[in-house]
Amino acid sequence: MKMTRRMMSRLGQWSSYAFAVEFDTKSDPIYFSLNAKKSKEVQQVFKNVDANERCYSLHVYSDDNFQRARFFGGLKNKLLKELPSECKVAEMSAFQPNVRDSVMRGYFLKDTTKSSVTERLLGELLRNDPVYVCSYLCGEDSGWTQHLWSHTEDGRVEASETYYVEPAEKPEHHPSTLNIINSDVFYSFDDAYKVLKQCRDIIPESKDVLDLVDQRLESKEETAFPVIVIEGLDATGKTTLTESLKEALGATLLRSPPQCLSPWRARFDAEPPVIRRAFYALGNYLTAGQISHEARRAPVIVDRYWHSTAAYAIATAVGGKVRNLPQAGSKVYVWPGDLLMPSLVLLLQLNPQERVRRLQVRGQDKTTEEEELEANSLFRQKVEETFQRIQGPACITVDASPSADQVLRQVLLLIRDKCHL
């Protein structure tokens, strides 16, 4: 009953939501809105949906970010496993344009089977889980209506509200950008810590990570020696360069995420984004403590830091093309106010063909995101563009295509110029 009251409190705003269906991840979504009254002129919305296909949508809601993320993370597998194989599943979202944290992620279903299995499964989800369920009908005039389902106290499912579906203009901000802050990227220690604290009963390893974080070294805003971060995609030469800089400058070399988190990385890599990102955000604060400690007596070189954490998270979260990224100057690119800031950040860049060749030669195991970089040029472009947009400090680009010695000389010149070493 408590869930029903929560649902009812949101239903009054339902017609203010816009919807985006990602039928093709390489193209813009199809946007539509709702109207309680039928327009005089019927406009086609779902051009790639046949009138005889049964269509449905599910929208995951919860005020608890942890519950919402975990449920959405497992929902697609459940749908693919239990729906008829002919039923097509596409990602979609319901959102209030330009309203932060308003996005409800979900799925759009196209079913040609006329099977009762689909509606039975959707009814069970509506009764037992934090989802809104809608069905869609195409009228004789080719206009579509959306029917919002509800369930009665005796457990029956019925369509409680009907709206007319209308095409909507593409919003100023891609909907996937509205929930980035503190869901995909964290901007304070407390916000990341809070997520793992919520997980302790379900993910026992969270307690071990929090115990480690509680013992972290204190980080100070000012360091006695410069801190230089080397960023870049895999196989751009970061490891070779950082080792060489360590020798050339008599510096301490640190890597992020720190080695102390290694026992739990595979566990958290399997979790939904909000949990995985909070884990890696805390890794940055552990690294910051190490940097502050080591920079008392020597320069510090860091192999990856917050730029990587943010760039991969934003590129993964934002659907579609590079133009869908938040605009330059957006808050999502601003360095966390409580995280130790480096003196200089250098971004190694390499043409895609050479980078892939180096990856193949290296032959090491790759993370899911690294595999995505190799297979998906669009994702790589989004990561690279996000690196360039991060502020305070911004990245200085370094061409990593010459020999290792030439790159080292170029970087040493930059460090001596910017850090006066």
Give an overview of the whole structure.
This protein has 421 residues and is of the alpha/beta class. It folds into 2 domains: 2-177, no CATH class; 189-419, 3-Layer(aba) Sandwich (Rossmann fold), CATH 3.40.50. The chain is built from 13 helices and 13 strands. The chain has an 8-stranded antiparallel beta barrel. Strands 10-11-9-12-13 form a 5-stranded parallel sheet, with helices on both faces. The longest helix has 22 residues, at 273-294. The chain is elongated and about 75 Å long. Belongs to the thymidylate kinase family.
Give the key terms:
5-stranded parallel sheet; 20% strand; elongated; single chain; Rossmann fold
Q: Which regions contain 5 or more consecutive residues with pLDDT less than 50?
A: 1-9
Q: Enter the CATH topology name of the largest domain.
A: Rossmann fold
- Please work out how many helical segments DSSP would assign: 13
The fourth-level CATH homologous superfamily of the largest domain is: P-loop containing nucleotide triphosphate hydrolases
**Structural class based on helices, strands and sheet pairing:** alpha/beta
Sheet with most strands: strand arrangement: 1-2-8-7-6-3-5-4
Estimate nothing, just give the exact number of structural domains: 2
* Spatial extent as radius of gyration: 24 Å
Distance between the termini: 66 Å
Going by CATH, the architecture of the largest domain would be: 3-Layer(aba) Sandwich
Assigned CATH class of the largest domain: Alpha Beta
Shape designation: elongated
Report the average pLDDT across residues.
89
What's the total count of β strands?
Answer: 13
SSE order, one letter for each helix or strand: HEEEHEEHEEEHHEHEHHEHEHHHEH
| Oligomeric state of shown chains | single chain
The percent of residues in helical segments reads: 25-40%
Main pleated-sheet profile = 8 strands, antiparallel, barrel
Our estimate of the beta-strand percent is 15-25%
